[in-house]
Amino acid sequence: MPRASWKGFLRLSLVSCPIYLSPASTRTRSIRLHQVWQPRASRGAGPEDYGEDGQPEQDAGRVHSETMREDAAAAQTAPVRVALLPHDPHTGEEIDREEVVKGYEYERGRFVTFTAAELKALDVESSKIIDLDTFVPRAELDPVYFSTPYYVYPDGGMALEIFRVIGAAMAEAGAAGIGRVTLSRRERLVMVEPRGTGMVLITLRAAEEVRAAAFKQADGDVDADMVAIAATIIRRRGGRFDPATFRDRYQEALRKLIEAKLKGLPVRPKQIAEPRPVVDLMAALKRSLAQETAAAKPKRKAADDRRQASLLLPVSGKKKETAKPAPAAVPPQRRRKA
């Protein structure tokens, strides 16, 4: 059973279905860089560490003392992870986390505080019920408003029939339901749509969270020949979406950098060549098309060979004798009457 992050009801008019939400996305385990305090290097040896001849003292006691000082200096200059703990800004003493509460700064340096019970009393209906009060065509929803996806599951065997009926009805209508849900003390607009035998819920950003596009108005028509060449390149690069092929190249480079630093290897910064500005767009499109055509030829030939091999019939080692044509049939002659 997937982990439930929210439990409540999905309501369609007077029909309520117990459901629970489970996050449909997860954060990949990326390399985390911490806040580290690295003190400045300690000072070098002083005049008292040298003999009358200007050379460092080499007696056993002094060598042992120097070794201890070097170890202590190394310990003092070694990076140390910084722990960010709540503390009293006046005395610097650590504060008990139980004494930390929620507060709102209504004036500079002045707060009004809230208890957990007071915040709990603010719960609204959407804290427990997702009311599908509007249904819109799925194509009308702009993905720029999509935020966080969740899988919707029926909560219990009794809810399965209601759940399937609501999902099948939305699939037949080709519509997605719009409702509200309160997650993490915040009410959010959501979209619910059928997905196979289940449903998917996606929280939507509010209008004030989405910036208006500032696209410039284009003058004149686009060159039809350029569009045709670009469309051909797009068709030749056609494929299927497979998120499993995505690799985080920055994380891979960061991992190699860490390994090199641990091994004490020299680190050489990688030079990234910036593309040259396109002066002649038509010429650039034609060169791109020629490059795509050259890259596609060997793949197409291999594919043709595979298809041809699959159509060939098995042939034995000996050649078959050529069949002789059958003699033409001679029509019977009619007998003359006596």
Question: What is the compact description of this entry?
Answer:
The protein is an alpha+beta fold and 338 residues long.
Describe this structure in words.
The longest helix is centred in the C-terminal third of the chain and has 31 residues, at 281-311. It contains 6 helices and 12 strands. The protein is of the alpha+beta class and 338 residues long. A hairpin with a 2-residue loop joins strand 11 and strand 12. The strands form 3 sheets. The protein has an 8-stranded mixed β-sheet with strand order 7-1-2-9-12-11-10-8.
Global structural class = alpha+beta
Shape: extended
**What is the count of DSSP helices, taking H or I runs of 4+ residues?**
6
Overall mean confidence score, pLDDT: 78
Whole-angstrom Rg: 38 Å
Secondary-structure element order, N to C: EEEHEEEHEEEHEEEHHH
Question: Widest sheet: strand order?
Answer: 7-1-2-9-12-11-10-8
Q: Give the CA-CA distance, first to last residue.
A: 104 Å
Key words describing this protein structure:
338 residues; alpha+beta; two-stranded antiparallel sheet; 6 helices; 12 strands; 22% strand; extended
